[in-house]
Design goal:
Blueprint: H1 2-20, H2 36-44, E1 52-55, E2 60-63, E3 68-72, H3 73-83, E4 94-98, E5 110-116, H4 131-144, H5 146-151, E6 157-169, E7 174-183, E8 190-198, E9 203-211, H6 215-228, E10 229-231, H7 252-257, E11 274-276, E12 279-281, H8 285-299
Antiparallel strand pairs: 1-2, 2-10, 3-4, 4-5, 5-9, 6-7, 7-8, 8-9, 11-12
Length: 314
C-alpha cells in the first residue's frame, strides 16, 4: 500500500509539473534582451548539421529528415538558454528545426531531444488505457491546484484537451500525443506535443516547441520525425533482459500523465518557459521547487517515502 500511495503521489506531482513546465515556442522578448546584432551573432555561431547523427554515445541514430537540420546539445543549449531565454539546464541531446526558419523567427518551431534512463517501460497496459478518463482526471487535478498556483504568483492553467489523442504503436514501441493548454488569459493556447520512444534502458523524449497554430505543421512532420530516430542494436526495446535490466516504476499511462518526471529528480531536464502575449515568461525554479515541496508536505502524512528519499530539484 505504501508503494502504491507513493507512486500515486509522484504521478500527481509529475502531472502538475508536465503542465506547468509546458514547453513553448520562442518569442522575441527575453528577460535580458539581446540586441539584433548579438542575436544574429549567436545564430551565425551555430553549427547546423544534416545527414546521419550519432546520439548519446551510440544509444541511437538520427537520420535528419529532408527539410530539417540538427543542432547538437551545445548548440541547442545556446538556442534554448541564450536566444530563447530559458534558465540554464543540462544540455539536451540535440534539436531538430525546420530549415526554412531561423531561431529568431516567431514562426520557428523545434523538436528537443532528451533521454531519460529510468529503465525499461512495460507496455502491457497499452490497450487498457482509457484516455478520455485519463484526460478527465488530469483536468480535475489541474483545476484543483489552480488556487495554490495563483497563491504562489503563477497564472492558472487550463488543460483544454487533447490536441492529438495518445497513440501507441506497439510494433515500433513509439507513443505520441499532444495537449492543448491555456495559461492565464493568453490569447493563444500553448501546444505541448510529445513523442516517447521506448528502449531497453529508458525513453527517448521528443518535445515539440510550438504554438497551437502550428499543430498542422507538426502533424505533417510527425511521421518523418518518428521514422528518423531509432535505437541502435543492444539498446532496442526487444533487447531487454528481464534477468538483469532495470524496469521503470511506471507504465504508458504515467508517461502520458508526466511519468518521466515521476522519479525523484523531478526537475532534471525540464525547460521552464511559458508563452504569453508574445513574451517569454521565465518561472523561478527555486520558487517552483518550494511550491512543490509545500504540496508534497501537505500530502506527506498519508504516505511516507521509502529509504528517506525526498522530492527536490537536481
Amino acid at each position: 500500500m505504501k508503494t502504491t500511495n507513493r507512486f500515486s503521489l509522484l504521478v500527481s506531482l509529475a502531472l502538475l509539473i508536465g503542465l506547468l513546465f509546458a514547453i513553448s515556442r520562442p518569442a522575441r522578448a527575453t528577460p535580458t534582451p539581446l540586441s539584433q546584432e548579438q542575436a544574429e551573432g549567436l545564430v551565425s555561431s551555430l553549427h547546423f548539421q544534416e545527414g546521419v547523427i550519432n546520439l548519446h554515445d551510440g544509444l541511437a541514430t538520427l537520420r535528419v529528415p529532408a527539410g530539417f537540420h540538427f543542432l547538437n546539445g551545445a548548440d541547442a543549449n545556446t538556442v534554448l538558454v541564450k536566444i530563447w531565454g530559458n534558465p540554464p539546464q543540462d544540455p539536451p541531446l540535440g534539436m531538430l528545426m525546420p530549415r526554412e526558419t531561423s531561431p529568431l523567427s516567431e514562426e520557428c518551431w523545434a523538436v528537443i531531444i532528451t533521454y531519460e534512463g529510468d529503465g525499461y517501460v512495460k507496455d502491457t497496459d497499452a490497450e487498457k488505457i482509457d484516455y478520455s478518463e485519463l484526460l478527465s482526471e488530469m483536468q480535475k487535478r489541474v483545476t484543483a491546484d489552480n488556487e495554490e498556483r495563483e497563491k504562489a504568483g503563477y497564472p492558472p492553467i487550463q488543460l483544454v484537451g487533447w490536441a492529438q489523442t495518445p497513440h501507441y504503436d506497439r510494433s515500433t514501441h513509439k507513443l505520441y500525443w499532444a495537449k492543448e493548454i491555456k495559461f492565464g488569459h493568453n490569447s493563444e493556447n500553448t501546444l505541448n506535443y510529445n513523442i516517447r520512444m521506448l528502449g531497453r534502458g529508458g525513453v527517448l523524449v521528443l518535445n515539440a516547441v510550438a504554438s497551437m497554430s502550428q499543430l498542422p505543421q507538426i502533424n505533417r512532420a510527425t511521421p518523418e520525425v518518428l521514422s528518423a530516430i531509432e535505437f541502435n542494436p543492444g539498446h532496442r526495446y526487444a533487447d531487454f533482459n528481464p534477468s538483469s535490466d532495470k524496469v521503470a516504476e511506471y507504465g504508458l499511462a504515467a508517461l502520458v500523465a508526466g511519468g518521466v518526471a515521476a522519479k525523484m529528480g523531478l526537475f532534471k531536464g525540464l525547460w521552464v518557459a511559458l508563452l504569453g502575449a508574445k513574451k517569454l515568461v521565465i518561472v523561478g525554479v527555486v520558487a517552483i521547487a518550494a511550491w512543490f515541496r509545500k504540496i508534497f508536505k501537505r500530502n506527506a502524512p498519508a504516505t511516507q517515502l521509502q529509504n528517506n528519499e525526498s522530492v527536490s530539484p537536481q
